[in-house]
Amino acid sequence: MNFDLQELSGTFSVTDVVAAMALSFILSMVIGYTYRYTHRNVSYSQSYVQTLVIVGMVAALIMLVVGSNLARAFSLVGALSVVRFRNAVKETRDVGFIFLTMAIGMACGARFHTLAVAGAVVVCVVILVMFKFNWFALNVQRQVVKVQVPPGEDYGPAIADVLIKYTTEYELVSTETIRGGALTEVLYTVRMKKGTEPGDLVAALQERTSGQRVTVLTGYDTTDL
Questions:
Q1: Does 62 have pLDDT greater than 70?
Q2: What is the 3-state secondary structure (H, E, C) of the chain?
Q3: What is the CATH number of domain 143-218?
Q4: Higher local confidence (pLDDT), 102 or 219
Q5: Where are the domains of the chain?
């Protein structure tokens, strides 16, 4: 019995299809576990990791469908262009994992199995090494200070006095009105002095701003909000 599938793009066997889909699944799972192990932030999403596996397998399937047929490739591009993704990717690193699973899936679908395995292993090892040795880390922790003040009065000098006392450096980021203009919110990035607690800074700022709300976000550079 002949198990070859005759297509416009060429001839491939059932074994080729099973091998491509199975290998893309296995390698996408490896990438997913690598992502889970190296994830640092608080917004871990199980759905995102499952999507990585799905994307890898779908990419392999697309490559099997397209084969070497240019007309079919352009048709798929037109069909996929109507897809709209409304969920924003919270971390740029997540985009890299999406491209990685797509590349591995495409390699599996094109039946470059050795390339797919080697590429997945090498990139995952690089990711693990960067995670283990904390490459490119910036050992300067900054905080975000949000101060709400009533409009119509200049609280800038009073806030600056407190920031000079409790921080080594500060920078004004933005000023905007909130609650329909009832309050003005001022946003600073600061580096707090050693031994200074965020609560001390909050209490000092509230004394100068008539008890208005003050928020200090610590570790914002490693935590996605």
A1: yes
A2: CCCEEEECCEEEEHHHHHHHHHHHHHHHHHHHHHHHHHCCCCCCCHHHHHHHHHHHHHHHHHHHHHCCCHHHHHHHHHHHCCCCCCCCCCCHHHHHHHHHHHHHHHHHHCCCHHHHHHHHHHHHHHHHHHHHHCCCCCCCCCEEEEEEECCCCCCHHHHHHHHHHHEEEEEEEEEEEEHHHCEEEEEEEEEECCCCCHHHHHHHHHHHCCCCCEEEEECCCCCCC
A3: 3.30.70.260
A4: 102
A5: 4-133, 143-218
